[in-house]
Amino acid sequence: MTGLNTVTKVLITGFGAFQGVPSNPSWGIAQRLPSTLPNNIELIAYTSAIPVAYHPTIILVPKLIAEHQPDIALHMGVAADRDYFAVEQTSQREPWPVLDIEGQNFSPEEVEKVWTGQPQKLSTDLDLHDVVAKWQNRTQDIVFPFADGGNGNNKEKRQRVQAGQAVQVKLVEDVMAVEDVRWSDSVGNYLCAFIYYADLVEMKENGKSGKRDVAFMHVPMLEGEQQLGVGVDVTVELVQSLVESWRAQQS
Hints:
It is a single chain. This protein has helices at residues 25-30, 54-68, 108-114, 128-139, 191-206, 224-250; strands at residues 8-14, 36-37, 41-45, 72-78, 85-88, 90-92, 121-123, 155-162, 165-173, 181-184, 214-219. It is α/β, with parallel strands linked by helices. It has one domain: 3-Layer(aba) Sandwich (Aminopeptidase), CATH 3.40.630.20. The strands form 3 sheets. A 7-stranded mixed β-sheet has the order 2-3-1-4-11-5-10, with helices on both faces. The chain has a two-stranded antiparallel sheet with strand order 6-7. Helix 2 runs parallel beside helix 5 (191-206) and helix 4 (128-139) packs across helix 6 (224-250). It is globular, with a radius of gyration of 18 Å. It starts with 7 loop residues before the first strand and ends with a helix. It comes from Zopfia rhizophila CBS 207.26. One of its GO terms (molecular function) is pyroglutamyl-peptidase activity. Keywords: Cytoplasm, Hydrolase, Protease, Thiol protease.
């Protein structure tokens, strides 16, 4: 049985830069997180931004699980076309059509070699609907700061990116008010989906509990210390929600 007197270890990662995202807020959040939280929670934030590249990622994930043996793994990435935070339910084995920052993809032959016998789609064993209900309650008083300092009048051209590829440039208000935190099942088919699938496999096969106690959170395109600080607050509340729900599953 796992309770408040037992330390729960949560491994956390964030990605580095890629096309259209010179400063990835997922890594900006990860490197600003505390090492411990109330209720005996230990945060193990990987010490570097994970490169947005398939082959380094597939090498790194098993090493992180073997070294740290976390109870829960939380990976983070940016969804710059969204104005909300979301945890993703599933990921898929393939395809991986988008070239990474090294100009590489992950071929069907490599997929078969690494993940022989694994299903096309995998889902976390965490109860994300329960997690999100707790997360929404915990974050209802968080106010997202204005990107322009609060006057709401500044406009600029901002390039949105999705699934690792730049899309059209839109003229948008330089004000991002995060509406909420959500459940989602749209992780994409780039490195966010890739690392999520890789760790869903790894935690099941070589993790401490033999369960897929893994989550992936997409964050909006946060910029500057004030917005990243809010991202940290939202992430802390997600971790607390994940751990509370996970502990209830263990009892």
